[in-house]
Amino acid sequence: MSKEHTSTDVILIGAGIMSATLGSLLKEVAPEWNITMFERLSGAGEESSNEWNNAGTGHSSLCELNYTDQKPDGSIDISKAVKVNEEYQLSKQFWSYLVTSGKIQNPRDFIMPVPHMSFVQGEDNMEFLQKRLDALSKNPLFQGMEYTKDPETLKKWIPLMMKGRSLNEPIAATKIDAGTDVNFGALTRKLFNHLESQDVNMKFRHQVEDIKRVSGGGWKLKIQNLETGKTEYHQAKFVFIGGGGGSLHLLQKTGIPESRGIGGFPVSGMFMVCKKPEIVEQHRAKVYGKAPVGAPPMSVPHLDTRLIDKEESLFFGPFAGFSPKFLKTGSNMDLFTSVRANNLITMSAAGMKNMPLTKYLINQLRLNKEQRMEELRDFVPEAKSEDWELLVAGQRVQVIKDTADGKGTLQFGTEVVSSADGSVSALLGASPGASTAVAVMLEVMQKCFPDKASRWEPKIKEMIPSYGKQLSDHPELVDELHESTAKALNLEQEEEKQGNLV
Fold first, then answer.
1. Which residues of the chain have pLDDT under 50?
2. Name one Pfam family in it (predicted).
3. Residue 62, number of CB atoms within 10 A of its CB
4. Residue 302 and residue 401: Cα distance in Å, rounded?
């Protein structure tokens, strides 16, 4: 069997939003570098980044209640909400730069304005929501958020959710028009199309089987060409592992000390989807509720307007499922083969510490369609089973590692693991993930190319004007960037579609 040997500056593993973002950033700051991308599937954005495999929310903490915890003294901690919002602003600035410089076109193919709302029931939750609004309103990133408990106003904001609703229990909502819906699959494909035009070598149907250090620096990858069956060897000075759920196995193969003691737990998601125009047109918002007491953050229920292939639909969920696969197209052995001697104790501790999560998953797996419809009717009282179908979304692998909180702590965020010499970096974890891709990839660049930081900084600031600043401390810059990104990304509000649909 013939073997191909090639060498390049950068190898990207996985054709998802993270690799697409890192490749796009590197091509701007170091256009002379040679980049090769390997993907086991036949196209870009086919796994976790695919529009049918994620909820598509531009996570900016405008509506996600689990990003604003209530402290024991009753006050609201908004630090995580501010951090996520700041990071999402970096993404919007970079996308705006790519559009205005002609590198990608037609932003409405991947982003559109959609109000973000939080919806609660009961006096205690209403008090929490009011406190949350009061805390967020002091920050310039959250200006324009409104609160109401008036049923008539709510009928204008969320007519589909109010139709047929009993008002025996008090309800309230917040609304902010600065929210977005993002089609990360479409965005990923646009970014890779641009990269291909910049001579990035795109290798689809190529599966990375092994990664080994090369004496003198860099890495050699053993790769199976799934079309020809040939084994190829590719060498690079820097490797980024952005293979979604598949990243953990590849990180383990590197053998770097930083990979030790890290495990992963797969969780699959499901959504109820409605595509009927007469129903879809009655709801134009992303509305997040509160997770049930004791449920994990991933279980926060939400009813989202989505734009996919120029057609709007409604997603409700998520409902959790379980599969030992780390990728939707992965192997049933993924979970078992991820257990190594160096993470066995960590994984075992996680199993003991997360019995509530296990119980939650078991209960979720037992749900039939009608039981899922009953949960949907908490949001849409008159929802009919025949109008909604079940969609199996992508696999998410939650990171398990030892922290100050003890061994086997389950992480619900996004994790970057890099070698000490910066020659390899891997992206693990889930939400808020794609929405903060630019911030996360800038972090990778800072960690892995510290000697290039000063040379690259002017170009990065040209692309991302708030780079190196906290927008929360610069209200005038918030207003300026909100206006410029809205114009570049065609996010001006469409007044005729905002509410008043009764």
1. 1-2, 495-502
2. Mqo
3. 30
4. 29
